Amino acid sequence: MKIALLQLNPVVGDITGNASKLAEYVKKAKSMGAGLCVAPELYLSGYPPKDLLLNKCFVERGLEAARRLAEELADCPPVLFGAAVPNTSGVGKPLYNAALLAKGGKLAASFFKSLLPTYDVFDEDRYFEPAQGVSGFQLGGLRLGVTICEDIWNEADPSRRLYNNDPLKVFESEKVDCILNLSGSPFTLGKQAVREVLISNLAVKFHVPVLYVNQTGGNDDLVFDGRSIVASGAGQIVARGKAFSEDIILIDPEDLPKALPESDPGPEEEAFGALVMGTRDYIRKCGFRRAILGLSGGIDSALTAVIAAEAIGPENVIGVLMPSPYSSRGSVDDSVQLARNIGIETVHIPISGLMDAFDAALKGAFGDAPKDVTEENIQSRIRGNLLMALSNKRGALLLTTGNKSELSVGYCTIYGDMSGGLAVISDLPKTMVYRISNWINEQRGEVIPRAIIDKAPSAELRPDQTDQDSLPPYDVLDQVLHLHVERHLPVSDIVTAGFEEHTVEKVLKLVKGAEFKRRQAAPGLKVTDRAFGTGWRMPIACDLSVLKTRGNGKLKMEGN
Length: 560
Description:
Elements: E1 3-7, H1 15-31, E2 36-38, H2 56-72, E3 79-86, E4 95-103, E5 106-112, E6 135-139, E7 142-148, E8 178-183, H3 191-206, E9 210-214, E10 216-219, E11 222-225, E12 229-231, E13 237-240, E14 247-251, H4 267-285, E15 290-294, H5 299-312, E16 317-321, H6 329-342, E17 345-348, H7 352-366, H8 373-394, E18 396-400, H9 404-409, E19 422-423, H10 430-444, H11 450-454, H12 474-486, H13 491-496, H14 501-513, H15 515-519
Parallel strand pairs: 1-2, 2-3, 7-8, 8-9, 15-16, 15-18, 16-17, 18-19
Antiparallel strand pairs: 1-14, 3-4, 4-5, 6-7, 9-12, 10-11, 12-13
């Protein structure tokens, strides 16, 4: 019996559209000879549906759509797909995260998720009641075990399990011929290699093939990379779905192909693919067709422009140049050259006159106070206002261009360069911005002018300004931020890793002080283990002196 893994890109909340796409792919899989189709976790609602699940009407319409889908597919092979269903027991949370089996025109069976993640970007315990174990069903002479995403991740590191419950233990006594896993596993750099080891080890443990189907597409800050996996009972990876694309993986668990070679795209290629898909889907799913951004002549806006042009087509991207008296001629020329290279429209709006108008309007209130960061921020906010005005007038989504290093330490202006609807590269450290930009040029020729990559980073808000006037060198800053933000280490442990104590204390103080800015920032696309956004839940008003004490550095958790 051939099983089709349907690697699909749902729209959160579009139950009707998601059902229609699933029906289309099931019929296509039928023509390919599939005897069973499997779609991702919570596919019908789109994942993650978040507080839409608190709306009773939303859940009811999902069930109605599931029944109609089963009727429509009565003459097709059975379909196993993810949906939210009511918990009718009267005990516990009102919903289950379920896999529904549509067969013969009816919903023939349901299977419930056991392990509900509540770390990082996940908050499933808010909505769902956990099942007490996994189960399966018989089809085509095979006993198929059904698991949903996190159910298999407790196997990732038995020495550091996140749950006492082992839902897969039942497969030791109730033997299955194959394990199916319906997943909504978000992308982070390097995660696919972890998944493949996990799936391979699981197959070896139970001596059966494991078929893992993952969602693809972008939903808000999360990007789902697809890359569904099939492992043989010997633990060999024998099939992979495409990265960042919809796909059908057709496989016969009793007649598996030969093992595939290892797939190891570099982090630059992975990150670029994720950001392009995330940007495209965010713009499309929010109802926009065009995007706009400021072009400063710096590397961050250059990379953001390249990503946007790749995502939605250069004809749909507008770059805005807003030079001030402190903007170098080179920055303007470099921006124009970049725009020509990628084929996007440009708009030029010098801001010197607007700066003079602000100076005149504030002269009485400011008195003889010397110019300082206040005037620098006014420049940024003038630009933010102009960009928002063009966004409104053109009906184009404004993309912010700040990177993770800047966002971490507050080297950005709230209501200025932080204005916008999507922060495309806000989870890329500055050093990674350079790496991806160089990779793009290696792949495509000098798309990003060499002068943009080579120049010293500068906000150009005062004469001869560079970022390193205020910040440690980015290669140092990014390492300290990685240890603090992603590995959760306190000052003493970071110092022990080889960094100067005064630098570390300064960086952690800046991170804490910028929390109020990040709380008001545009959503950004997550590509690292820990991004500022859904999974970052730090208080604004707090005392972080405890972080100067020594920790063990072992708080990081891995999951789906």
